[in-house]
Structures are given as C-alpha cells and as structure tokens.
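F.,

This is the one I mentioned.
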C-alpha cells in the first residue's frame, strides 16, 4: 500500500531523514517511535506532500505522493492543530471536511454518532469555536475529522498526547477497529510505548532519521522497546 524508496530529507547541509526502503501493507496498523527530533513528523509530512524529499519518493497505492494529487481522496490525517480552522465550531468543521470528502450532513452525522463516547459530551452542541477548545478536545476533533469519508490510509501524529486516560483507551479501540475490521492502513507515531505496542501490529524505531528496528509486535515488544530507549 505504502512504499518508501531511498527517501532522504536534508535541511541545509543537515540530513534529518534517511529511511532507505520501507513497505507498509494495506490494513496494517503501523507505529513509528523515536526520541525527539528522530524524524517521525518529517516522514509523515513527506507522506502528505507537506514537504519535498531531498532524494527518493513515497508511493501510496501506486501513486507517487510528490508528483500526483491522486492519493488525496483516500488519505486522511491529523498532524497538529494547524489542520483545524479556529473560527469554526466542531460541527461546522466536520461538515466542511465532509464536503471535501463527498459526504453530506446526514453521512457526517452518522459518523459523529459513532464517536459520542469518544467526545464525552465536550465537543458537540457547545457552540464553541475550535480555537477555544482545550488542546485535548481539539485533538479529538482532528482525529474524528480524519475518519470522515472512510479513508483507506489514516495518519495520526502523536494521537495520544494531551488526551485523558479514558479517551486514550477509547482511541486505542477505534484505531484497532478501523485497521482490523475495515482494512484501513493506519500510521501513528507516539512517545507512549505502552499504547503503541497495544495498538500497532508493527513498530519501527527511528533514530537520527534512520530505521534502527522494525518489529512485529508480540508479547516481548514492549520490553524490547523499553530496553532500547533505556540505553
Ligand atoms: N523546517 C526545518 N528546518 C530545519 N530543520 C528542521 C525543519 N523541520 C524539522 N527539522 C529538523 O528535523 C529533525 C526531525 O524533526 P521531526 O519533527 O521530524 O522529529 P520528530 O521525531 O517528529 O520529533 P518529536 O518527537 O520531537 O516530535 C529535527 O532535528 C528538526 O529540528
């Protein structure tokens, strides 16, 4: 589904990403971990054509993301609050995203209904602008908006950060469900090793822009990651 080939990114003379090659199959829940500055957001930004590669390319469903726009209809993401529109209410934003994805209000309402628990009565019907929501509630809006219109690829940068424990647990079951039962390819990054091993069937560790581990998640993975990061 997602093929990364000889991908590098340099800023000035400094190389911040050197991924070599990486294959992510359809329906995989894929986790990216690494210390601050390891290159996680850089990789996601390249995947979304927010920045250009220095060398190499990424193909998503056989579409080269930096030369064609055809990956956009099946790809959704929430990287940070710059994806939101501060002067809209959550409802206005969801309907706006729905329109972009060919979904009418009734379709969007159906999606929102499934996320009532996740919203915990803090998002809908509050007549608050997105800019006035707490960081965690902004994140909830961004994540749910990314799931409107049944995307085939969902990219979430640090989705657990700023969320309360209840919401983190709910988010884990949402991510597992869309990957396992709907065949969605989910890419997430996180600093939370417990959550990422819970939710991802594969975990790649980045260090200074390079892949240093590529693990199929099993009962030993959390220990292995903890040992890796303790050094
Ligand atoms: N526009 C830029 N100009 C120069 N360097 C940049 C730019 N954007 C990112 N970098 C550098 O690229 C490296 C990788 O950053 P990136 O944000 O991808 O790391 P990350 O793994 O997401 O980190 P974190 O866990 O802190 O979010 C860092 O050294 C960062 O300073």
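My design for it:
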């Amino acid at each position: 589904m997602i093929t990364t080939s000889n991908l590098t990114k340099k800023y000035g003379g400094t190389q911040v990403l050197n991924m070599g090659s990486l294959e992510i199959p359809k329906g995989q829940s894929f986790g990216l971990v690494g210390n601050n500055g390891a290159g996680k957001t850089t990789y996601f930004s390249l995947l979304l054509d927010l920045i250009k590669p220095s060398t190499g390319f990424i193909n998503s469903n056989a579409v080269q993301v930096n030369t064609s726009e055809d990956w956009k209809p099946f790809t959704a993401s929430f990287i940070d609050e710059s994806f939101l529109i501060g002067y809209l209410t959550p409802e206005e934003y969801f309907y706006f995203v729905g329109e972009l994805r060919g979904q009418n209000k009734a379709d969007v309402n159906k999606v929102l209904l499934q996320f009532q628990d996740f919203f915990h009565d803090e998002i809908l019907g509050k007549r608050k602008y997105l800019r006035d929501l707490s960081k965690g509630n902004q994140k909830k809006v961004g994540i749910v908006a990314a799931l409107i219109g049944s995307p085939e690829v969902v990219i979430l940068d640090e989705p657990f950060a700023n969320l309360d424990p209840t919401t983190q647990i709910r988010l884990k079951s949402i991510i597992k469900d869309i990957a396992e039962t709907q065949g969605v390819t989910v890419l997430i990054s996180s600093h939370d090793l417990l959550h990422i091993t819970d939710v991802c069937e594969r975990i790649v560790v980045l260090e200074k822009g390079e892949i240093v581990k590529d693990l199929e998640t099993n009962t030993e993975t959390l220990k292995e990651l903890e040992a890796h990061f303790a050094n």
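The chain has one domain: 2-230.

Talk soon.
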